[in-house]
Amino acid sequence: MNATAAQMLGWNAAELIGKPLAPLLYLPSDPAEPVSDPLCLSAAVRDGAVHRVQNDVFTRKSGDSFPVHYVTSPIREQDRPVGAVVVFQDITARKQLECLQQAQLSISHILAQTGALEDAIPQLLRVIGEMGPWDMTLFWHKEPVNERLACEGAWIRPSCRWDEFATICRSSEFPPGMDFPGIVWSTKLPLWIPDALTDARFTRAPTAARLGIHGACLIPIRTGSVIHGVLELYSDKPRSSDRQLIHILTDTGMKIGQFIDRAQTGTALRATHRMTQNLLASLPGAIFLCSRDLRIQYANTLAHHYFADAGASLLGRPLFECLALSEVAAQQLIKEWATLNADSPHQTPERECQVASRLYRYRFFPVATPETAQYQIGMVLWDVTDDKHLQDQLIQSEKLTSLGTMVSGMAHEINNPAQAILSMAELIQEEKDPAMIKEFASDIVGYARHVSNVVRDFSGYARSAGGDGATEIDVAERLMEAVKMARRGPHFGYVDVVTRFDAPTFLRARKGEIDQVFVNLINNATQAMNGTGRLTLGAAQDGGWIDVTISDTGPGIPASVRPRIFDPFFTTKAPGKGTGLGLSIVHKIVTRHGGTITVDSIDGQGTTFRLRFPALSQ
Ligand code: ADP
Asked: Per residue in 204-231, pLDDT tens?
């Protein structure tokens, strides 16, 4: 036996020489069943081979045991085995490392399995305690509100009676810098205290002294420089610092820190998600989010209220089926939907659609998703049935008011022919010559036709605004009809009319409303020109838009007045000459059709109103 072997076993070589080794190296775990072939000596001698044993336990003279790895090689004399050499190695350190690695694996496993920190703490504290020479582990959590460390869990080795210390910890709170946990919070570094009882910073020393608590180790639980808490470990003996253990515990602290961070992020995400859901649910519009194949992926409360049977879910269903749209309306929506990803996805116009007996204003909007390059599509709908009703009434009453003005100014349109009809009828009564009678009669027919035309035009124009649906209309034709109406009014005088119409321009709109727009703008223009000047009407197509211009050579609109001309009841005209409603109604109707209206005016030279409507086709 060499000196190292003797030293490892705690004997003098002299004490062992000549003695049977097996009873000294192996503690008899069961005396009735001795170790079968200690050190594989018999085997080596018998078979002449080298034997390796990875995991065995030897006992020292003191009675302590330690793990060993040994190799037994036979000694031969003239090819005959006569003995063996045993070379052994103390593998305590390797075993400890394996143990620590195993514990680390368990910790990762626990963290991966649990969702909430509270559930993980008891198991974590036990595994951490058992991974080193610890008899107690405590978890200090940083309170988010009052910036204190509070003890939220304790594990005590069953053989220790340290509950009193755990109770004291549970009722303590430490600010940064106070006691060992507070110091670790401040420094963000691990702290190893060979004997806590000799450290003046230990505020819990009296209880610890009574219970025999000595060695201490504290580990920050952190992610980066953010501290989430502190692990505190105690043993019943003073312990000298173990760099490897500190390293492994620090790593564990970071793992727990990352877990807390993830859990907090998850909580924050869930809170944000809940808030978004609540927000969407409480918006005063119905909202749909759909996949590219038009299936509903999200529908808020109002969407369900409008379009789902009570208690039924709209999710996963095709959008158009849920909206129960007419074929034409669905086709129109699909067309808009298909163009949404084009150049300017954010500028989708507001449109209206009818679902059952309700009228909705809607708008598409793109929803960018990080997962796919393509937009998902959102749709928001407002129920405007009641608004529409009010607006229709307003439009209609404005129309009647302006008709009233026009009718009073054009009384002669009916009066003059009526007078002529009357005179000719009187003449016919006296007249004997059949040829003359025929001539008067044909004049009477002409005048009567004129009167009937006038009445027809006006009654057509006065028809209810809400009564007609959207149809395909020829813009140039409607402008000329509006000129015809305005001509019958009191202001037209000797105004020249110039037209600049491109190739046919068509809109999808309500005819009555578009007529009202054109008549109002032309009436304003002729009124401004006061009987002389040039009225220029233009209609042209520009890509997906129809541009309409109505220009006059009147005095222009003063810059100070311009910002207010679309306000309801704003007028610069004398009482009885204007209501101030014309342009506000024009604006309402144009935007209702997805269009825009702008005005250019130069003082003393004239005014141009420009309208843009979405074209029927490009
Ligand atoms: P009203 O014609 O009854 O006054 P409108 O809303 O149609 O009401 O017009 C508001 C105001 O805008 C008018 O009073 C007038 O001052 C100004 N305005 C509208 N069109 C023209 C125009 N072509 N030229 C000059 N001023 C105009």
From this structure: 999 999 999 999 999 999 998 899 999 9
Task: Give the span between the Cα atoms of 417 and 428, in whole angstroms.
Answer: 16
CA dihedral over 200, 204, 210, 213, signed as positive or negative: negative
CA distances to 367, 563, 569, 583 from 575, rounded to whole Å, are 51, 21, 12, 17
CA of 608 relative to ligand 1 center, distance in Å: 12
Threshold 0.85, pTM exceeds: no
243 shares a domain with 321: no
Please tell me the residue having the least CA distance from ligand 1 atom 3. Answer: 578
Q: Is the CB of 522 under 6 A from ligand 1?
A: no
| Residue 537: φ, ψ to 5° | -115, 130
Give domain status of residue 273, yes or no. no
Token pair of 574 as six digits: 């004398």
Domain count, the chain: 4
pLDDT in tens, 395-447: 777 777 767 666 665 666 678 788 889 988 988 998 888 998 998 898 898 88
Residues 443 and 480 both lie in one domain: yes
How many whole angstroms separate alpha carbon 144 and alpha carbon 499?
74
Cβ of residue 571 lying under 6 Å from some atom of ligand 1: yes
Residues 226, 142 within the same domain = yes
SS3 readout for 395-426: HHHHHHHHHHHHHHHCHHHHHHHHHHHHHHHH
| Ligand 1 contacts CB of residue 582 (under 6 A) | yes
> Residue whose CA is closest, atom 26 of ligand 1?
557
